[in-house]
């Protein structure tokens, strides 16, 4: 069976779920990865009313759509971050509160625990749930108290950095235990500004939470490629921890030479930039190699398009992205290579 091709709704929060569901079918997708902002999925309403989760499924079912993951990146970001005025723009008012940083972090942590419970309620209400063998998953961010120290000046010791991983572990272990209690996985999107942003930091994050069974990764190659991180190696290193996959493209080595990897404080779409996100299939990511690696590690979950391209109409881009991903995917072989020659007195043709 081919993997379902879904659309991450985070960049479409200006549309109601009803509007987006209809558009999603027209663009050629099998389902949605529902973001916990806009009106797509409300954590507190999901906990307060069984009718709400059934209504969400009704909207999806009316269009023949599936869902395999809930996404709560924005609130998750605030759990470990050094909170400043920028967070107010991405957080629900009740999480921001008076803006006092530690209060924001604690309310964000409590909301992430609620997200696990809401995801469980939502997936338990899924029509035909017994016939679907994908685990319940929440994708998101963790934030980081040490991202500002990514460049080691003033001189930064490993002891200083370890304090950041210890802070991550202290804040996220209770959240992960809550996920475990309701049988839901948390998939960190490994990403600049998070506690894990490449292979080395992902390994260190896993160690910090003692390889907690509910802590894994939402694989998104676009955030590795322009850094120079081997994203195929990431898949093969963390195969059992790949809980969700974002299909998102990027190009790099462009621009006019005036802006480097750190972005030069320019906006996306600025022609001077060294790198920029592109519509899936129009950048430099080796998606064919990704599909091979996903088959090798046994990943059978959704391929969720996170569509971002500052230069392109999003409906046009997301439509061609769905077709591209569907054309690209293929099931693994069910027979051993050269098995057809066994017992015929001749060797393989390799």
UniProtKB/TrEMBL annotation:
What GO annotations for molecular function exist for this entry? Answer: isomerase activity
User: Where's the Xylose isomerase-like TIM barrel domain?
Assistant: 24-327
**Is Magnesium included in the keywords of this UniProt record?**
no
InterPro entries according to UniProt? IolE/XylAMocC-like, Xyl_isomerase-like_sf, Xyl_isomerase-like_TIM-brl
Q: Which residues form the signal peptide?
A: none
- Give the keywords, sorted: Isomerase
Annotated protein name in UniProt: Sugar phosphate isomerase/epimerase
Organism whose genome encodes this protein: Pseudoxanthomonas sacheonensis
């Amino acid at each position: 069976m081919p993997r379902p091709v879904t659309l991450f709704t985070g960049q479409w929060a200006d549309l109601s779920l009803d509007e987006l569901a209809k558009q999603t079918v027209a663009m050629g997708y099998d389902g949605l990865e529902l973001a916990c902002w806009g009106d797509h999925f409300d954590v507190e309403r999901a906990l307060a009313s069984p009718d709400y989760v059934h209504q969400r499924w009704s909207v999806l079912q009316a269009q023949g759509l599936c869902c395999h993951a809930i996404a709560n990146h924005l609130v998750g970001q605030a759990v470990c971050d050094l909170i400043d005025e920028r967070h107010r723009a991405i957080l629900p008012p009740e999480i921001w509160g008076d803006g006092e940083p530690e209060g924001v972090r604690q309310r964000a942590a409590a909301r992430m625990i609620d997200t696990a419970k809401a995801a469980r309620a939502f997936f338990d209400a899924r029509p035909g749930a017994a016939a679907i063998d994908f685990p319940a998953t929440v994708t998101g961010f963790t934030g980081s108290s040490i991202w500002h120290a990514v460049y080691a000046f003033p001189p930064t010791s490993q002891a200083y950095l370890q304090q950041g991983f210890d802070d991550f572990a202290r804040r996220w272990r209770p959240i992960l235990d809550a996920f475990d209690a309701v049988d839901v996985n948390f998939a960190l999107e490994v990403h600049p500004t998070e506690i894990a942003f490449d292979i080395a930091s992902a390994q260190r994050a896993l160690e910090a939470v003692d390889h907690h069974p509910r802590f894994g990764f939402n694989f998104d190659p676009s955030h590795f490629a322009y850094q120079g991180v081997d994203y195929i190696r990431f898949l093969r290193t963390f195969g059992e921890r790949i809980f969700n996959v974002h299909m998102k493209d990027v190009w790099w080595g462009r621009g006019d030479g005036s802006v480097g990897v750190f972005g030069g404080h320019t906006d996306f779409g600025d022609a001077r930039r060294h790198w920029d996100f592109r519509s899936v299939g129009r950048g430099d990511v080796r998606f064919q190699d990704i599909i091979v690696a996903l088959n090798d590690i046994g990943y059978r979950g959704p391929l969720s398009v996170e569509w971002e391209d500052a230069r392109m109409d999003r409906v046009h881009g997301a439509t061609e992205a769905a077709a591209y991903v569907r054309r690209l995917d293929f099931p693994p072989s069910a027979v051993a290579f050269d098995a057809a020659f066994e017992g015929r007195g001749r060797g393989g043709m390799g």
